[in-house]
Amino acid sequence: MNEINRSSPVHPFLDGKPKRMLIDGKWLEAASGKTFETINPATGEVLARVAEGDAEDVDRAVEAARRAFNGPWSRAKPFERQSLLLKLADLVERHFDELAALDTLDMGAPISRTRGSRLRALGMLRYYAGQAVSIHGETIENSLPGEYASFTLKEPVGVVGAIIPWNGPLTATIWKIGPALATGCTVVLKPAEEAPLTPLRLAELCQEAGVPPGVVNVVPGYGETAGAALAAHRGVDKVAFTGSHLTGQKIIQASAGNLKRVSLELGGKSPDVVFADADLDAAVPGAGMAVFANSGQICSAGTRLFVERKIYEEFAARVAAYGKSLRVGDGLDPNTQVGPLVSAEQLDRVTGYLAIGRQEGARPLSGGERLTEGDMARGYFVPPTVFADVRDDMRIAQEEIFGPVISAIPFDDIEEVITRANATSFGLGSGLWTRDVSKAHKLARAIRAGSVWINCYQAMDPAVPFGGYKMSGYGRESGKQHVEEYLNVKSVWIRTD
Ligand code: ADP
Fold it and tell me: Ligand 1, closest atom to CA 402?
């Protein structure tokens, strides 16, 4: 594998050497010897070459994960798994700035954002550490004639295939390996091809923390090859997937061979509803960052902005002005508030939707075009965009864009906005802004989505479940429900008379 020549290293992990995959505690090249490049989306520069795993590597990794599962690991005491997670949390804390910078380099998010995920990343590891010692079955009274005792045991599901996206590599990796380590599962994780570096660095830290060989394996590669092989593998007991709904559908099909368990955290087209009685000074940046954060590359972004008609023009204009005030640039610049999109492909997709929006008759109040001035031309920059005059049937109001694009839509009354907010095949996030507690309660119950944020957006906590309704997927991440996704329930009967 060739080294990359760079005049000055930009990050300690980027030493010019190709990155290998972690299988059975060893850092290996791909069986095919192939590598792929991972690119800095702010500059178009190659950051590293990475081993390109395919079905053969997935086989090796699943075998290693099975051996590890059949070994002492799945019988490790809860305290051992807890202390491993706590050690990993301490290592992640010590190396946090380095990990955050790697996320920024590999997928573009502003450093203020990746560093800002500190509380959540560490909180997740420490939360799962707590969960490791809280797993328990139940003693259940039964009505059989004769004397029987009946109780349940919770057991780790087995080998987990984790397939993650690129929009938050560090937290996405922790979100998969945290519950696996808490429950005694083993994992084969396939990072997204756009951003494999942080998961690989985190795998090094897992080793340093003392995670036994084969318990966490990381196989970078493409979705159609490595990802598909993992989803279909008969040695995998559960797939934990985060990504697009189209890939989610393929995962379900691929999983059918051995009827493996599947949890899916998919896309969205989330409504964010602003009533005229809201604290508009808070709602303007709130509704703006519900979409502009991470350049809109968040599955629960509040992209359908429903605004009560009497404040529609003014509010949409204020959100557009707020968008214009945000600094777009290289994520490594601490002043940057909106970074580039992750890849040239994503840029094409988002600019394609900008064109579709105009053709459909939507009126751009801000943004609307790719930025190409100066250094921007090298990267994949799209500024915060607000489209006004959007109708519900437009593609920009129905399809997930995954870019910093708000579709602002007027509404007249609460019943109408409930119907229209729910008129989507997705159901991941939702927001509403009001000072009226009755309206807030009514919408919180009526909106068919996994999360409802009232007078805020995107609040997340390791203890609070997150996941989708409808085509946004099933299963929950975070919270006790997440740990259950990694456990089987076994019923035990004992005849005692
Ligand atoms: P996005 O559009 O956000 O990149 P994807 O669903 O394409 O979302 O990708 C999310 C993850 O799914 C990535 O790790 C990708 O490599 C993987 N992936 C893509 N296609 C497949 C597939 N057919 N089978 C399994 N994994 C896949």
Answer: 3
Indicate the pTM of the whole model: 0.97
Mean pLDDT (the chain) is 96
Pick from 438, 467, 434, 463: nearest CA to 450: 467
Residue 122 and residue 100: Cα distance in Å, rounded?
12
Strand 21-23: give its sheet, edge to edge: 26-28, 21-23, 216-218, 186-190, 159-163, 238-242, 261-265
The best mutation among 163, 401, 428 to test binding of ligand 1, ranked by most ligand atoms within 8 Å of the C-beta, falls on: 163
Alpha-carbon separation of residue 321 from 110, 328, 333, 384 (angstroms) = 20, 14, 22, 10
Q: Is 107 in the pocket of ligand 1 (CB under 6 A)?
A: no
Segment 368-408, tens digit of pLDDT: 999 999 999 999 999 999 999 999 999 999 999 999 999 99
Closest listed residue to residue 16, CA positions, set 41, 35, 43: 35
Strands in 95-233 per DSSP E: 139-140, 148-156, 159-163, 186-190, 216-218
* Cα–Cα distance, 329 to 332 (Å, whole number): 8
Q: Any idea how long the chain is?
A: 497
User: Which positions ≥6 away from 225 have C-beta within 8 Å?
Assistant: 53, 54, 55
Q: Is the CB of 223 under 6 A from ligand 1?
A: yes
Interatomic CA distance for residues 284 and 255, integer angstroms: 43
User: Residue 328: which H helix or E strand, with range?
Assistant: none
Q: Ligand 1 within 6 A of 431 CB?
A: no
- pLDDT digit string (tens) for 315-365? 999 999 999 999 999 999 999 999 999 999 999 999 999 999 999 999 999
- Give me the catalytic one of 52, 193, 194, 265: 265
Both tokens of residue 205? 């830290």
Domains by residue range for the chain, with CATH: 21-266+473-491 (3.40.605.10), 271-461 (3.40.309.10)
Q: Is 265 a catalytic residue?
A: yes
Pair 339, 108: CB distance under 8 Å: yes
Q: Are 470 and 312 in contact (CB under 8 A)?
A: no
| CA 139–ligand 1 middle distance (angstroms) | 41
Question: 392-396 — which CB contacts under 8 Å span 24+ positions?
Answer: 392/420, 392/423, 394/357, 394/360, 394/361, 394/362, 395/353, 395/356, 395/357, 395/360, 396/353, 396/356, 396/357, 396/360, 396/362
Residue whose CA is at the smallest distance from ligand 1 atom 26? 227
